[in-house]
Structures are given as C-alpha cells and as structure tokens.
Amino acid sequence: MDTILLETNHLQKKFGRASALSDVSLTVYKNSIYGLLGPNGAGKSTTLKLLTGILNPTSGDILFAGRKWQRSVLKDIGSLIESPPLYNNLTAFENVKVHATLLGLPDARIKEVLKIVDLQHAGKKRAGQFSMGMKQRLGIAIALLNHPKLLILDEPTNGLDPIGIQELRELIRSFPEKGITVILSSHMLSEVEQIADHIGIISSGCLGYQGKINKGDDLERLFMEVVKSTRGIEGGER
C-alpha cells in the first residue's frame, strides 16, 4: 500500500475579498512525482506557496507525514519557487556555499548536491554566465542541501530549450529513487505526462481532477474538461 507523504484538505486562500484558492485537496504519495497542472492564473503557485509556508491558508489543513503542518517541517522540504536564488557574480560552488553556511553544512555536502545536478565541473564560471538550464539545476542543488523528503518545483522547465528540458526531466525522474518525493507545477501537458506518476488539475482555484497517470490517458481532453467545468468560478493565481 502506498504511503501518503502530504495531504491538503479543502485549502482556501483569499487576498482581501478575492479568492485565489477555493477548494484544493491534494494527496501526494511518498517517493513519487506529483504534477500539478493548470492554466496560467489557476492557483498553482499559490498552492505551492502554502505548502512551503510563504503564504498562510485562509482555511483548510495541510498534513505532512500524517501530522498537521508546522514550520518545523520545512527542514524536510526543499523548494524552488519562481527564480533560483542566485548571486550572478559567484560560482556554482560559492552560490551553494552561501546556503550551506547558513545551514551549518560541510563542503562535502556542497560537492554532493553539485554532482547530483551535474554541475560539479562548472569550475570558476560565474552564475551570471550560466544558461537558463544550468541556473535551474543550480537552484535545485540549493533546494537539495538539507536532504529534503519533499522537493517542490514551480514551473521548473519555463524558459528552457529542448536540451535543457530533457536534462531537467531526467534529473527530476531520478529523485524518487533517492527517497525524494517531488511536487511540480506546470501548464505543459506533454512534460507532466512524461515525468509524473500522479496529476492534479487545478483551474480557477479549484482542484477539478486528481489521479494516477495511466498509459493511453487523454490528458488534453481531461484538462480541457476540468478547465471548462470550473470556468466562471471566482479565483486565480497571485
């Protein structure tokens, strides 16, 4: 029987009178990849910010490993929300060193995470000279520093060329074998289909579908059905 690592129960988030999320109940299984699909403005980033404590829910619960979410669970969560937190004038090693120092981690861990994301040979090249794909991988290296049980990635392939997308896809697919569960958001159906074990489809702040990806599933049809069924419901990503 699959073990549940993270659950949300009827999450709601309002900004003043505007509703960004009205009903989101996720179930994420341990050592799997969960793809959160939705059009722009659907509520994907808001959901991930609630899971990482950047925002507080208006109502609803978040359970991590069977316990109600507290800030202490952040030690088991790594995340890359929006742009990687990089210093363009520093090398890959130096960028990770900044965060490792704050966490009290040795240089050996820096070398480990750089090897995981295949940046161990970046040398003295500054992050400002990196390709978009290299910057994303460096951001993931930083998110992996604390040996997270859960890795949260917000639109990780945005802006990448086909080679960068392929490299990142292979990297993300390797994480469950390392004991890392992944939640990633995307509006690209083809990418999620190739990488995720389970999907949730969110539109207008509501989770309209959740389930395991099976071979032969018509994700495009399912996606459009969910979007059409939630059209007109007040909500949207902030």
TrEMBL record:
UniProt keyword terms in alphabetical order: ATP-binding, Nucleotide-binding, Transport
Originating organism: Bacillus swezeyi
Domain ABC transporter: 6-229
Family: Belongs to the ABC transporter superfamily.
UniProt-listed InterPro entries: AAA+_ATPase (IPR003593), ABC_Gallidermin_ATP-bd (IPR022501), ABC_transporter-like_ATP-bd (IPR003439), P-loop_NTPase (IPR027417)
PANTHER family: ABC TRANSPORTER, ATP-BINDING PROTEIN
Pfam families recorded: ABC_tran
Keyword Transmembrane helix: no
Protein name, UniProt field: Lantibiotic ABC transporter ATP-binding protein
SUPFAM superfamilies: P-loop containing nucleoside triphosphate hydrolases
Molecular function terms from GO: ATP binding; ATP hydrolysis activity
